[in-house]
């Protein structure tokens, strides 16, 4: 393994940054929390373990019955011609793991001469259609589609073993992705290696099984993505779309290239063709048609490639040359490619910064971009990495993502924009990005202005050492801003500050991004108070200590039965100790925060210092839950005291505001309504759409 000078510089920057932040953490968080953070930062997660493939045991036998919904969401169409053993194994797999979606199974017997008819006709629930003459794959599929009742058609080869959960995953993109028109499964060989992770088509009409023989966990193949085509061995398409396009084209009868042609026609209709890695299907390639293109039905592959190339010559002119192996750069060539780098994989169920970042990725994808995410730590963060992959984010992690220098050397040239989050991450990566992605616009996402938060914390504590640390952070942050093409802040207040501190910088406001939830329970059915915030963030620790020790006793004097729910991960000992106070419940991290948003009467934001905008306020208001906050907490959030929030800055005023709101149903309802309107107007995906388009999606590719 060779190390370059760039690697050494990168590691030196990282080491000095970790040292500086560690010393600051010791002063603000104490040694125990600092040690835990250090272990988390330097530790290596265990490798991700793939679920083993599932196969039917014993000899192939017909299941006694198979699922059959009278009003199916999906119709699974399986064309067969002989090969009864394969068909039975496929049906065994379907019967053993029924999908959540209501389905019907249609087997189209294309004139089999073996015992297929006798064996399948006895399976309860199965819809069996027999063709008198063999017409080939296209004719059998079109006949099956003709009698289907489902909203979606799912075409499945009989030489497949669908894995548990495959069908629900295959249908999921139709709900989550704009304009999804055709979705294909991840095909694997029986030994677990990839057979296809979406198909690539070249300008001469030749096609390539992307990922063939590769590792399914490889970052190139593990996320939802647009594909040139998807193999007809396991695909889903809306029934009405399939019929409007005329089904599989008989021009390619009896078989081959009909699936590629369908993908091109779906795309021409304005819909997307997607590869879904969560829909895993084992495919015994060649079991029914062989693999020799010089003989048998497989010989039609060569003939139909020529027909396909002639029919789609105009579209194919924009495709790549067959002499160049497909890569992440080429398979996403038609979309703007945006790289996002942050310290860790976002955890949107833990903190508002992560929620903002994930919703930004979602918005970019919905606007047509291809998003790539690289965590500086390069670890697979289990369900949080998978969340990104399900959205369509190309998420990278070790061992597939090598050292930062090598990874950027390989991938840097493909990006139109690189966004780096947090000044200490940008300090490490900015030189590498400028070197290996010189064509890319560099966007610095502050998350919030760290130096402003540190300055305020130092002033509150009256700590000279913290003040000097804040000054160093200010110098570092302003240096990154000066060296970036554009800087994102989360509030107009922070933009105004940078107009003074960095007047030459191009600055845009991209605030928190939220989706409105339901209103929750009405006033009379709600009770208690709630605070939500991660405790790795020092302002949150200070906030709940101040509230419990100085404010809550005043509230309990007026409402003795009142309870305070304290929610947030990484609870330090000083916060856990607050549970000793009457009425205080320290819950730690709560996987489903919904019941507290819907059931608690008031949310609190008792922050005495901080910066940026407060996701805890947006979160509650998006759920129709009124908020009592401090002036610092509502800074830059377009909120007015008495109209959509109540504000109190000392213990007496804060307690009085809580008691007033808790007892006044009319005021409670007014604040709940106006708070939701504020989120929709300033902090929704719709509100941010134009800024995102202007920052990330304008300019020539």
Tell me what you see in this structure.
This protein has 701 residues and is an alpha/beta fold. The longest helix is centred in the N-terminal third of the chain and has 25 residues. The protein starts with a helix and ends in a 5-residue tail after the last helix. 41% of the residues lie in helices and 17% in strands. It is globular. Strands 1, 2, 3, 4, 5, 6, 7, 10, 11 and 12 form a ten-stranded mixed sheet that branches. A seven-stranded parallel sheet has the order 15-14-13-16-17-18-19, sandwiched between helices. Strands 22-21-20-23-24-25 form a six-stranded parallel sheet, with helices on both faces. About 2% of the residues have low confidence.
Gist?
The protein is α/β, with parallel strands linked by helices and 701 residues long.
Shape: globular
Query: How many strands?
Result: 25
Instruction: Please report the distance between the alpha carbons of the first and last residues.
Output: 35 Å
Q: Could you estimate the helical fraction of the residues in percent?
A: 40-55%
Question: Mind describing the biggest β-sheet?
Answer: 10 strands, mixed
Low-confidence stretches: 43-49, 290-296
Number of helices: 27
What do the pLDDT scores average to?
A: 90
Find the structural class using helix and strand composition: alpha/beta
* Strand content range: 15-25%
User: What would you call the quaternary organization?
Assistant: single chain
Q: Measured on Cα atoms, how large is the radius of gyration?
A: 29 Å
């Amino acid at each position: 393994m060779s190390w370059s000078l760039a690697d050494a510089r990168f590691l030196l920057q990282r080491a000095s940054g970790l040292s500086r932040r560690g010393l600051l953490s010791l002063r603000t968080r104490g040694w125990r929390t600092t040690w835990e953070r250090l272990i988390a930062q330097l530790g290596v997660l265990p490798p991700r373990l793939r679920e083993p493939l599932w196969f039917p045991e014993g000899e192939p036998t017909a299941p006694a019955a198979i699922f059959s919904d009278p009003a199916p969401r999906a119709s699974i169409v399986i064309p067969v011609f002989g090969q009864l053993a394969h068909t039975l194994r496929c049906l065994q797999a379907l019967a053993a793991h029924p999908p959540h979606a209501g389905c019907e199974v249609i087997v189209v017997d294309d004139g089999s001469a073996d015992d297929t008819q006798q064996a399948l006709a006895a399976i309860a629930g199965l819809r069996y259609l027999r063709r008198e003459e063999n017409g080939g794959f296209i004719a059998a599929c079109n006949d099956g589609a003709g009698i289907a009742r489902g909203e979606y058609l799912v075409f499945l080869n009989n030489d497949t073993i669908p894995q548990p959960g495959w069908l629900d995953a295959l249908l999921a993109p139709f709900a989550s992705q704009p304009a999804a028109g055709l979705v294909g499964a991840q095909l694997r060989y029986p030994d677990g290696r990839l057979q296809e992770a979406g198909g690539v088509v070249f300008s001469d009409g030749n096609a390539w099984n992307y990922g063939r023989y590769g590792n399914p966990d490889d970052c190139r193949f593990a996320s939802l993505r647009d594909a040139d085509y998807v193999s007809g061995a396991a695909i889903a398409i809306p029934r009405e779309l399939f019929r409007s396009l005329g089904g599989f084209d008989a021009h390619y009868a009896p078989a081959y290239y009909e699936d590629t042609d369908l993908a091109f026609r779906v795309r021409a209709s304005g819909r997307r063709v997607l590869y879904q890695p969560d829909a895993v299907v084992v495919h015994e390639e060649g079991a029914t048609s062989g693999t020799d293109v010089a003989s048998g039905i497989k010989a039609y592959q060569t003939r139909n490639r020529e027909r396909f190339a002639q029919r789609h010559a105009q579209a194919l002119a924009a495709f790549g040359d067959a002499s160049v192996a497909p890569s992440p750069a080429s398979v996403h060539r038609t979309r703007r490619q945006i790289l996002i780098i942050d310290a860790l994989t976002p955890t949107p169920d833990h903190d508002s910064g992560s929620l903002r970042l994930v919703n930004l990725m979602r918005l970019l994808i919905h606007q047509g971009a291809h998003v790539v995410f690289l965590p500086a730590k390069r670890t697979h963060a289990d369900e949080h990495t998978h969340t990104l992959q399900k959205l369509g984010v190309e998420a990278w992690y070790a061992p597939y993502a090598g050292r930062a220098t090598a990874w950027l050397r390989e991938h840097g040239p493909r990006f139109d924009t690189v966004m780096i989050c947090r000044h200490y991450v940008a300090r490490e990566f900015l030189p590498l990005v400028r070197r290996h992605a010189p064509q890319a616009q560099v966007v610095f996402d502050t998350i919030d202005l760290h130096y402003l938060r540190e300055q305020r914390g130092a002033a509150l504590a009256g700590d000279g050492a913290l003040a000097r640390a804040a000054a160093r952070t200010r110098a570092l942050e302003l240096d990154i801003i000066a060296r970036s093409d554009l800087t994102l802040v989360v509030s107009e207040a922070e933009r105004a500050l940078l107009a003074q501190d960095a007047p030459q910088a191009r600055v845009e406001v991209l605030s928190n991004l939220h989706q409105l939830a339901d209103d929750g329970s009405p006033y009379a059915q709600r009770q208690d108070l709630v605070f939500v915030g991660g405790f790795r963030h020092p302002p949150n620790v200070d906030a709940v200590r101040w509230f419990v020790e100085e404010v809550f006793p005043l509230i309990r004097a007026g409402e003795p039965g009142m309870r305070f729910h304290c929610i947030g991960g990484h609870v330090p000992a000083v916060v856990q100790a607050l549970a000793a106070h009457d009425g205080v419940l320290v819950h730690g991290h709560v996987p489903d925060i919904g019941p507290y948003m819907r059931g608690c009467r008031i949310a609190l934001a008792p922050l005495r210092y901080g910066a940026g905008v407060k996701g805890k306020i947006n979160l509650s208001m998006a759920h129709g839950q009124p908020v009592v906050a401090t002036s610092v907490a509502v800074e830059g959030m377009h909120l007015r005291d008495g109209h959509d929030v109540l504000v109190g800055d000392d213990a007496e005023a804060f307690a009085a505001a809580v008691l007033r709101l808790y007892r006044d149903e009319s005021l409670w309802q007014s604040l709940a309504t106006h708070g939701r309107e504020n989120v929709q107007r300033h902090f929704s995906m719709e509100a941010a759409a134009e800024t995102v388009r202007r920052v990330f999606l304008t300019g020539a590719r």
